[in-house]
Amino acid sequence: MCTLEKRGNLFFLTLTGDDEHRLSPTLIDSLITALSQVKSQAVRGSVLITTAHGRFFSNGFDLGWAQAAGSSSAARDRLHYMVDSFKPFVAALLSLPMPTIAAVPGHAAAAGFVLALGHDYFLMRRDRGVLYMSEVDIGLTFPDYFTALMRSKIGSVSARRDILLAGTKIKGDEAVRMGIVDSAYDSAESVVEAAVRLGERLAEKKWNGEVYAEIRKSLYPEPCGVLGLVPKTVIASSKL
Amino acid sequence: MCTLEKRGNLFFLTLTGDDEHRLSPTLIDSLITALSQVKSQAVRGSVLITTAHGRFFSNGFDLGWAQAAGSSSAARDRLHYMVECFKPFVAALLSLPMPTIAAVPGHAAAAGFVLALGHDYFLMRRDRGVLYMSEVDLGLTFPDYFTALMRSKIGSVSARRDILLAGTKIKGDEAVRMGIVDSAYDSAESVVEAAVRLGERLAEKKWNGEVYAEIRKSLYPEPCGVLGLVPKTVIASSKL
């Protein structure tokens, strides 16, 4: 499902297994627990890198589990349940007291794309994997926190229209051009290596984690509002 | 004034006549009726293309009709009347349950520019026609829904300043560079042909119109708020 490791300053949250890493209630719960552990062990210089094994970063919520409910209304209840369960995870990610990097070596769709976007830095593979908001094609509207996050993280008006309203599938280099992804790499290994290099550079800054998190919230007030995250003033300066 | 035709999947709303296509109460009313008809005939795969004959897409509200009122306060009343009549048209356009394309073969100024911007895709001629928000030059402030729409559709801060605060006249290629227009073409015919090609491509997706409209609203929450359009959750997936 997912593992959490610590190597020096860097926490590695990895979606394991060679499947689609569907965000089921179980996986969402494991991810929330993992972030909780990361937060409790945070020190100045900590950095989180989230990555995945296999061909998929994550293909979104576990719609198969929803459909297995038996009836269409029970299926919708299960979908809503996953939407509501994932919301505190995104809130925790946006509040994490350290820099966060998504090292995306495969496809990221729907809630999986949102998972990646919830990180401060987004690195991706260029030769494989697409980013895709599948909802318009499947026939689903977006949860409020999805659109709020996407509006905050994707600056280009036409890119937002292409992604949300046209369901465009975007490969690495295009994602960089559109301003969604910071940089793209030639293999799964090199995405992770680049994330580690970036992580070490950020770690050297030894930022105060509480200040870092509050500044992040002030950067993204719209999703924070929807997620119930209130920014606060922090003066952690040794000079004041 | 305006005509509505259907050819296959595509609805064509055309501003007819070789004049400035000024948005008078009569024309606004015809446009609202036309959108109503389009909405009632909408099916999966429907697409709206709005275009015009002659040298103008639209030069905005019928200020001549306002001035003919006789007194300066009666003229202002007529202007306010047109501002209020046009608002539900823009609301209907932003709620239309299908992709919308503005194929602009001539000048689009003030409310005419807003008319074009209210579409999901904006195609324009490069060799003739300018986009122009004339209000600062005429001495008029903007209706609230104008600025909300322009802020949502024009992403660049300096472009917004140039357009609204400096009354800059923008030709096709510049409009593409500024991110306002999707693409520019060498003649009136080729703008429309490109709109048809785009329309057919979008039609093939056979999107659920209700979902499409709700996703569009979630893309543009600020104008939707001003226009009284409340987004709602829709689950139209056959899988749920």
From TrEMBL, chain A:
Give an example GO cellular component term for this record.
Answer: peroxisome
Q: Which reaction equations make up its catalytic activity?
A: a (3E)-enoyl-CoA = a 4-saturated (2E)-enoyl-CoA; a (3Z)-enoyl-CoA = a 4-saturated (2E)-enoyl-CoA
Q: Which SUPFAM superfamilies match?
A: ClpP/crotonase (SSF52096)
**What UniProt keywords apply to this chain's record, in alphabetical order?**
Lipid metabolism
Q: In which pathway does it act?
A: Lipid metabolism; fatty acid beta-oxidation
The protein's GO terms of the molecular function aspect are: delta(3)-delta(2)-enoyl-CoA isomerase activity
Taxonomically, the superkingdom here is Eukaryota
State the similarity comment.
Answer: Belongs to the enoyl-CoA hydratase/isomerase family.
Any GO BP: fatty acid beta-oxidation
- Mitochondrion as a keyword? no
According to UniProt, the name of this protein is Delta(3)-Delta(2)-enoyl-CoA isomerase
Q: What is its EC number?
A: 5.3.3.8
InterPro entries from the entry?
ClpP/crotonase-like_dom_sf (IPR029045), Enoyl-CoA_hydra/iso (IPR001753)
From TrEMBL, chain B:
Q: In which pathway does it act?
A: Lipid metabolism; fatty acid beta-oxidation
Among InterPro entries, the record links this protein to: ClpP/crotonase-like_dom_sf, Enoyl-CoA_hydra/iso
Taxonomically, the superkingdom here is Eukaryota
Query: Is the keyword Lipid metabolism assigned to this protein?
Result: yes
Gene Ontology molecular-function annotations: delta(3)-delta(2)-enoyl-CoA isomerase activity
- Give GO terms for biological process: fatty acid beta-oxidation
Output the Pfam families linked to this UniProt entry.
ECH_1
The alphabetical list of record keywords is: Lipid metabolism
What EC designation does it have? 5.3.3.8
Which chemical reaction does it catalyze? a (3Z)-enoyl-CoA = a 4-saturated (2E)-enoyl-CoA; a (3E)-enoyl-CoA = a 4-saturated (2E)-enoyl-CoA
Q: Which GO terms describe its cellular component?
A: peroxisome
Name the family the entry cites.
Belongs to the enoyl-CoA hydratase/isomerase family.
Q: What is this protein called?
A: Delta(3)-Delta(2)-enoyl-CoA isomerase
